[in-house]
Amino acid sequence: MRRSSLTKILCVLSSLVLITVCDATSKTTEQAQELPNPGPHKQNVLMIIVDDLNDWVGVMGGHPNAHTPNIDKLAAEGMLFTNAHATASLCGPSRASVMTGLRPSTTGIYGQLSDKNIKLASPATENITFMTEYFAENGYKTMGIGKIFHSGAPEGSIQEYGGRINGFGPHPRNKFVWDRNGTNTDWGVFPKNDEDMIDYKSAMWAKDKLAEEHASPFFLTVGFIRPHAPWYAPQKWFDMHPRESLTMPPYLATDFDDIPEISRALHEVPMMPTTEWVIENGEWANAVQGYLASVSFVDHYVGEVLKALESSPYADNTIVVLWGDHGYHLGEKNRFAKHSLWEETTRVPLIFKTPGGVKGKVTGTPASLLDLYPTLIDLVGLPANEDNEGTSLKPLLEGSADTSGKVAMTSYGYGNHAIRDDRYRYIYFSDGSEELYDHQNDPNEWVNLADNIDYDEIKQQLAHHLPEVSAPLSPVTSSDVTNDYFREILTKAGIDVKD
Ligand SMILES: [Ca+2]
Ligand SMILES: [Ca+2]
C-alpha cells in the first residue's frame, strides 16, 4: 500500500493519531506546492462534464433512438471507454470524488453536500488539492463555467469561474406532468428558444474563452446541466425524436423477486415516478422523448464548444475529455432515477481525445471516473499527485497497458458497493447481502446469481476489490432521498434527515 493511502486510512480510523498523521498529509500537499514549475506545457485541457448522462449516446449503444452526432464525432477522433463507471451514483459525491481524486469510501462523502464543505468533510479531504488547484499550482490558468462540482465550484478552486445560473431552469410556471417535492423531474417542451437555456449560455462563455489569447496553458471546464431533470428543451429537440418511433427500455415486472431486502430498501426513490406509474398513465414514451431531446440538445452545445476549439489556435495542442457524472434509469428496474448500484446508473460515457493520439479506438476495459485526475496530470506531463487513488489511463490510451483484472467500483450509502469487471457486476451491501450479474448473458441485470454456488469463486474474486476502509458518513453530507433506509442510517449517524 502506498504511504499516502495508509495515511488517509489512519486519519479515518483513529482520532488519537489524527494530529500527527494528518500533519504528514499536509506535508505531502506542501511538497506538491513547492514543486518547481516544470515550465510551459504545450498542452491545454478542455474538460466537458455532462450532468446525468447515461449510455443513451450513439456510440455507447444504450438506446436505438439516441442522436448525438457531436459526442460520436469526438469518440471517432479519440478513445471511448464503454465500461467506465462513476464512483458514486449521484452528483455531489461523484464530482467530489473526481475533483479530490479520492473514493467515497475514503472520504465518507456518500451523499450530497455543499461545494464549500468538501474539504471539511473528513480528515482525508482536509488537505486535499482539487484537480483544478493542482493544475493551477503547476502553472496552468484554470477557467470554468456551470456545474463542475455539485452546485458550481468552491470559492477559489478555479481562477476564472463564470458561475452557474441557479438550479436546472428555466422552469414553466407550473410543472407539466410530475410535481413532487424533492425532485426536478418533469418533462415537456420548454422554453421556446435555445438561447434561454443555461447550457447555451455556458457554451457561449466557453467559446469566448477559446477565442481569447492565453499566456499560459489552460485547463477549461464546461459543466453542462442537461440531461439532468427536468427534461425540458425547445421543440426542435423533441421533433428529432417523434414519440411514435421510440423504443422503450427493457423492463421486467418481476425483476425484484430475486434481490435482497436491503437492495429494495436502499434503492427506493419515493419522490420519483415508477415504471408502473408511467405505464398506467401513458407517460413512458413522453419521458423517454424528454430525456432523448435533452441529450440531443446538450450534444449540440458540446459540438459548439468543440467546433470553437477546432477553429482556435489551441486546436492541435488541447486534450479533450468528456464524461457524465453518473448514469440514469429511464424505466429499467421500475425507476426513473439515479441513486443505484446497477449498471444503468453507474455507467457513464468517458471519451479522451489527445493531440496526435489514438483515433476511433473503443475499449471495454473497466475504468473509473477516479482515474480522471491522475490521467489528466499524466497526459500533460505533470508529476503524479500521491494522494490520487485512481490510476492513470494514459498507458491504455497509448495502447500499451495490461488491462487484465481491472475493475471499477461505485458506492452508494454507507458500506454498499458495486464492483464491475469486464464481465460481471458484483454488489455487496452493508448487511452482507449480495447481487451478482453476468453481463455476457444478462445485460439487463435481471438474474441475480449471488446465491448460485457455481459463482462463489467469481464472487470472491470480485469481493477482493471491496475497499479496505469504509469511512463513516461525513457529517456535512445528507441524503436527497428520503426513504426508510436513509432515514435510519442518517439518524444513527446524527445527520438531519430532510422530509
Ligand atoms: Ca448528476
Ligand atoms: Ca432480478
Descriptive key words:
499 residues; alpha/beta; Alkaline Phosphatase, subunit A; 9-stranded mixed β-sheet; 4-stranded antiparallel β-sheet; 17 strands; 31% helix; disordered N terminus; binds calcium ion
Task: Quickly describe the structure.
This protein has 499 residues and is α/β, with parallel strands linked by helices.
CATH topology: Alkaline Phosphatase, subunit A
Query: What value does the average pLDDT take?
Result: 92
Taking the alpha carbons of the first and last residues, their distance comes to 42 Å
- Spatial extent as radius of gyration: 22 Å
| Total strand segments | 17
Query: Which range best describes the helical content: under 10%, 10-25%, 25-40%, 40-55%, 55-70% or over 70%?
Result: 25-40%
- Just give the CATH class: Alpha Beta
Bound molecules: calcium ion
Strand content: 15-25%
Low-pLDDT runs = 1-38
- Structural class, from secondary structure content? alpha/beta
User: Which shape, going by the Cα principal axes?
Assistant: globular
Q: So, the CATH homologous superfamily?
A: Alkaline Phosphatase, subunit A
Q: Main β-sheet: number of strands, strand sense, barrel status?
A: 9 strands, mixed
What's the structural domain tally?
A: 1
State the CATH architecture: 3-Layer(aba) Sandwich
Q: What's the tally of helices?
A: 17
Q: What would your notes on this structure say?
A:
- This protein is α/β, with parallel strands linked by helices and 499 residues long.
- The protein has a single domain (42-417, 472-492), classed as Alkaline Phosphatase, subunit A, CATH 3.40.720.10.
- The chain has 17 helices and 17 strands.
- Strands 1, 2, 3, 4, 6, 8, 11, 12 and 13 form a 9-stranded mixed beta sheet that branches.
- The longest helix is centred in the middle third of the chain and has 27 residues, at 284-310.
- The chain starts with a helix and ends in a 7-residue tail after the last helix.
- Mean pLDDT is 92; it is low at 1-38.
- Bound molecules: calcium ion (CA) (2 copies).
- One calcium ion (CA) binds next to loops.
